[in-house]
Amino acid sequence: MEILGIDVGGSGIKGAPVNISTGVLTAERFRIKTPPGAEPQAVAEVITEIVNHFEWKGPVGIGFPGPIKHGIVKLAANVSADWVGMNADEFLTTATGCDVTVGNDADVAGLAEMSFGAGVGQQGTVVMITLGTGIGSAVFHGGVLIPNTEFGHLEIEGEDAEIRASDAARQREDLSWKKYARRLNRYLLRMEKLFWPDMFIIGGGISKDSDHYIPLLTVEAHVVPALFLNEAGIVGAALAARSQAAQP
Ligand code: BGC
After folding, report:
1. Which amino acid residue places its CA nearest to atom 5 of ligand 1?
2. Tell me: the pLDDT tens digits for 184-235?
3. What is the pLDDT of residue 247?
4. Into which CATH architecture does domain 121-227 fall?
5. Which residues contact 215 (CB under 8 A, 6 or more apart)?
6. How far is the CA of 106 from the centre of ligand 1 (A)?
7. Closest Cα to atom 11, ligand 1: which residue?
8. Four-CA torsion 83, 89, 90, 94, nearest 10 degrees
């Protein structure tokens, strides 16, 4: 079965149909720039454009950059505050005419990695961290996800971790890899002291550059880049919609 996976990011919204038995994209991904301010209506229009691009009629899974409880957006750090309190499942189902299931972007990326990527077979505690416009987190134990952990907002020196250690911070401040690795290490050491994971999986666009910073990290846990690199969000969004799609 195929499900259209869409990842809503701070800079781009991208999607592709995914074979949910293998985690493989069945067509080339299609990306549109995130509209400035990421207001609900504008984002819904982009999502509809992606749905139309693939002439899609089936179920759609969407990874959204905020915690989602029973379809409702609870917080919007990097998209318009107008999303907060909205039922994104219902809103986007109406906008696209498809059956839409929305989940947190990092949670769904984690699902992709645990199902087909760097976390396959890991039974201990695995923490996936996505580094992009913000920092997302997904925590698994025994392969089971604890959703909406939001550890990008962990305070370090009175500031949200994502303000200092996201990939956007690295680019904004034009940090060398060495300087950036130091910041990321500080964040991961803090996470390690709180959760003692067996493995950290690093996702987001920056996962393709992992050779520049993973060797500089000093955490005890095994640190690996996401196998799906930046596509974990698309694959995971489709996987997360799977149980919904199986319902009559
Ligand atoms: C949001 C998270 C999201 C992360 C990555 C954070 O600002 O609060 O929900 O997972 O950014 O997009």
Report:
1. 136
2. 999 999 999 999 999 999 999 899 999 999 999 999 999 999 999 989 999 9
3. 59
4. 2-Layer Sandwich (3.30)
5. none
6. 7
7. 134
8. 100
